[in-house]
Amino acid sequence: MQIKNLRSIDLEELDKYREEKNDFVIFGAGSHGYIASNALESLKINVKYIFDNSKQRIGKQIKNIEIVRPNNKSVNLDMPVLIASVYPEAMYDQLINLGFKNIFLCDLLYDYYLSKTPTFVHEESGILKSTQDIKREVDLYNLEIRRFKFQATNNNLEIKSLDLVVTERCTLKCQDCSNLMQYYTRPKNADMDNLINSLTNLLDNVDRINEYRIIGGEPFIHRELDKLLSFLMETKNFLRIVVYTNATIMPKDSTLNLLKDLNAFIDISNYGDLSRNFKSLTKELEKKNIDYSAKELKWTDSGRILEKPHSSQDYVKKLFKNCCTRDVFTIMHGKLYHCPFSANLAELIDYKNKDRDFINLISEKEKINREKLSNFFFNKSYLEACFLCNGRDYSTPYIPVAKQTQKPLNIPKFN
Asked: Residues with Cβ < 8 Å from 29, sequence gap 6 or more?
């Protein structure tokens, strides 16, 4: 997709469509579908349909708007369509192939909506999302658009988000963890000096990392987490720090103070009784005025190593193109990966051509440059790890959340 063929809709055009009483279509029934529908509603613009490719969403409604497939025969191809997703490439291609002519991005609409609606809460399928949640979703959307613009102009190297894996250890034993923690028999913490050196070498070659995501395992297990947070305090080229936790461990007071000073955001996976310190943690976060969200979660069948690898490269390319985590770049034990799945898979097993899936930020320091990183970020059509992944897109079925296992799962053996 060439980003120049996909443009943002501005307020003047929105006013024109409203005056002509044109109905809109929103493509995307996830978080951005809710945001876009509320934004258009605030401008008194009617939404006729919401498109989605997920079988599990078709036939349902958002704000009394029917969710249908993009190839629904009752939809006029001249209707304006807003792409409400952080993965616009596949959606744009699909709409063009179906014959739609008026396709737009939502970034200017979102900016206007946020400027006029400073405090609000959305209810998404019974899940309340905070103002900070919505702002974060909008930021990530806008950053994704800028990422495509970089591909077209080649003058700025930004990373939308970067996962910093601080530990493989976890307090829970979820058998379907999408980061493959359930396969580790001897999980270990990251060497913080190694992680900081890796990050330093990357920062020397990029313009900006917009969101650091500190993940595990359970990040608050690591006793040297403060060292990483103190390092991040000294860096300037980032927008936000997010820590993902299952609310089983109470962080140290020094950690909480650093998180407050960093204006960090705590993303809590609320697993009910399993999240045994949920009340204590949220109380302390509120006391220190640290932003957080505590959403109920939906899990997809993405957390397993396939027993039989995919055989078709074309299928794997499609899997990668539609994957919602294909560019959740990850640093783990000195290496830079495209996603947490590939990072953990490479730690767990040897698989064919796995060295193509990462850049060694320590041993290859002298070879790292903007061109090498740009090729790695933007010119991959698939990962070798994709052959062993079930995929993570709109067609991946939902599964029970946080189902526990008593012991690590066996890693499949390959011929």
From this structure: 50, 51, 52, 54, 57, 60, 62, 67
pLDDT category at 88 given cuts 50, 70, 90 is confident
End-to-end Cα spacing for the chain? 38
Read off the amino acid at residue 237.
N
Question: What is the pTM (predicted TM-score) of this model?
Answer: 0.83
3-state secondary structure the chain: CCHHHCEECCHHHHHHHHHCCCCEEEECCCHHHHHHHHHHHHCCCCEEEEECCCCCCCCCEECCEEEECCCCCCCCCCCCEEECCCCHHHHHHHHHHHCCCCEEECHHHHHHHHHHCCCCCEEECCEEECHHHHHHHHHHHHHHHHHHHHHHHCCCCEECCEEEECECCCCCCECCCCCCHHHCCCCCECCHHHHHHHHHHHHCCCCEEEEEEEECCCHHHCCCHHHHHHHHHHCCCEEEEEEEECCCCCCCHHHHHHHHHCCCEEEEECCHHHCCCHHHHHHHHHHCCCEEEEECCCEECCCCCCCCCCCCHHHHHHHHHHCCCCCCEEEECCEEECCHHHHHHHHHCCCCCHHHHEEECCCCHHHCCHHHHHHHHHCCCCCHHHHHCCCCCCCCCEECCCCECCCCCCCCCCC
pLDDT for 235-257, tens place per residue?
Answer: 877 888 999 999 999 999 999 99
Predicted confidence (pLDDT) per residue in 150-192, tens digit: 554 556 788 888 999 999 999 999 999 999 999 999 999 999 9
CA distance 111 to 339: 28
CA angle 121, 141, 44 (to 5 degrees): 55
CA nearest 191: which of 331, 32, 369, 366?
331
Q: Which two tokens stand for residue 140?
A: 């990530």
Query: What single letter denotes the amino acid at residue 135?
Result: K
Looking at residue 2, its pLDDT comes to 46
Secondary structure of 226-250 as H, E, C letters? HHHHHHHHHCCCEEEEEEEECCCCC
